[in-house]
Design a protein that fits this description.
This protein has six helices and no strands. The chain is mainly alpha-helical and 179 residues long.
Length: 179
């Protein structure tokens, strides 16, 4: 029963290489579309609000990862704890990288919006607006791996709780049989 539960919950997330290829294709498409159809005279502040959403999701994932290590560590064997710790460190590092990248994008867009009156920005506003559109597409796409990561953490915690419940039932049944 335990293996059946693991098979139902277990799935493979797409690799980082897959996400990189998809992001490059999306950004190329966004650049092409922005070049043909989007003409901005300034960067709207509403873009910044949209860019904050991936930061909130990444922060949620980071929080869930730290909670998972604390909540389920006692129910795992030493080998599982070691693997979980390594996996959480790796995912936390990747999440922190994404948070840093998202914050950098927001700072870039905010500085461009604030410096809108400068002659340099006005001369290159078309190219800058294409970069902003690409950054927006990247930020929105980055929600997918983050949300999949949150789902993976929640599913893992559910699997451990199910396993713990099954183990309690087995012990209870064995103790009743032993009496």
């Amino acid at each position: 029963m335990n293996r059946e539960a693991a098979k139902c919950i277990s799935y493979q997330q797409p690799s980082r290489a897959f996400h990189l290829v998809v992001v490059v294709l999306l950004m190329f498409t966004a650049w092409f579309i922005a070049n043909k159809y989007i003409i901005l005279t300034s960067i709207p502040w509403g873009v910044l609000t949209i860019l904050i959403l991936p930061i909130a999701s990444s922060a949620t994932l980071f929080h869930k990862l730290s909670e998972t290590q604390k909540n389920v560590a006692e129910d795992l064997s030493r080998n599982e704890q070691r693997r979980l710790t390594r996996l959480i460190k790796e995912k936390s590092r990747a999440t922190l990288f994404m948070l840093t990248l998202q914050i950098s994008i927001i700072i870039f867009v905010a500085l461009i919006s604030l410096g809108n009156e400068s002659s340099f920005v006005q001369q290159h506003i078309h190219t800058i607006s294409k970069f902003v559109v690409c950054a927006l597409v990247f930020s929105l796409y980055s929600l997918i791996p983050v949300l999949l990561g949150v789902k993976e953490v929640i599913d893992f915690e559910g699997l451990i709780k199910t396993r713990k419940t099954l183990n309690k039932r087995k012990k209870s049944a064995l103790s009743k049989l032993g009496k």
